[in-house]
Amino acid sequence: MTEEEILAFFRKKSKPVHREVICGIGDDCAVISRGSFWELLTTDTMVENVHFDFAYFDPYFVGRKLAAVNLSDIAAMGGEPAYALLNLSVPGISERELPLFWEGITTKLANYGAEVIGGDVTRNPERWHLTLTLIGHAPSGGVIFRQGARPGDLIFVSRPLGASAGALELWQQGFEPPESLKRAHLDPEPEIRLGKVLAQENLASAMMDISDGLLLDLARLCRANSLGAEIEAEKIPVHEALNEVSLSQEPIFYALSGGEDFALLFTVPPEKERFLRLKLGSQRLFQIGYIIEEQIIYLIKNGQKEKVSPSGFDHFA
Ligand SMILES: Nc1ncnc2c1ncn2[C@@H]1O[C@H](COP(=O)(O)OP(=O)(O)OP(=O)(O)O)[C@@H](O)[C@H]1O
Ligand SMILES: Cc1ncc(C[n+]2csc(CCOP(=O)(O)O)c2C)c(N)n1
Ligand SMILES: [Mg+2]
Most buried among 116, 161, 245, 260, using CB within 10 Å? Predict the structure, then answer.
């Protein structure tokens, strides 16, 4: 089974029984009503040689990235991160590695007001296997779900895409990537501030973060709404450093299907666009297309409109 099929199985089978569960399987975070506020829960795992390789990572950046991928799921709901539980499962860890890893994870969490408050340690005979569970909160009713988009809503991404996947390919081909690509892969910045503005000002109708690639994640957002999308290749913000390096594919491929961008993908009703630009001032946003009724994703490229199948990262594809 593919990762997509496994997730579909869980989504179909789950029927929350607790009345306080506002949102269970299927969004970037689970959401639980705690009366005066909503709690947000998310968990993400990083496995050595699946998510990172010590050929170009060190324990400090493994810690920073583990924090970032979880923070990004809180950002995708428009929430505020707070508490984390850390599960460390390793063949062994040295007196040099442990403080570096701890410094990485705690500094990244602290940048966004979060801290580690517990966890678990076990031996893993094979490789580093790390899981972080992050808990956050939002005002009651003040989160943006994947569901909520309407036909005609504008589709935005929060920053240029493809840098992380470009860096990965360069390392895997034995080259040293330029600094901006390296940073995007080793130390991605979660969009906590932007997510909060979009939620608190009720600007976005639907939102998620891009972890598996724009096309695949846009397809997930569309499916959550039983809608489709029309996007334009020329409007997709491709990270500019991809034009300066030698890669196996065109730069736009990494922006469409690379993954690990941790940018926000969100929809905005057209009548709110002016207010959105006003609220975000100098922050650049990239409108790449709009939501359509038909449950298909179209890409307009060189004046041609073509149906695209959602390609991106799947652990088992
Ligand atoms: N093993 C599982 N059991 C129950 N629910 C799961 C399981 N794995 C994933 N889910 C749920 O399925 C949904 C999609 O999961 P997915 O991991 O793709 O989300 P994500 O964290 O936004 O993406 P990524 O892991 O790529 O960052 C989420 O709501 C998640 O909680
Ligand atoms: C060594 C190595 N090989 C491949 C990749 C690419 N990669 C791994 S997981 C993932 C998507 C998000 O993960 P998840 O869906 O588990 O949250 C991507 C694009 C990498 N980073 N390192
Ligand atoms: Mg996510």
Answer: 161
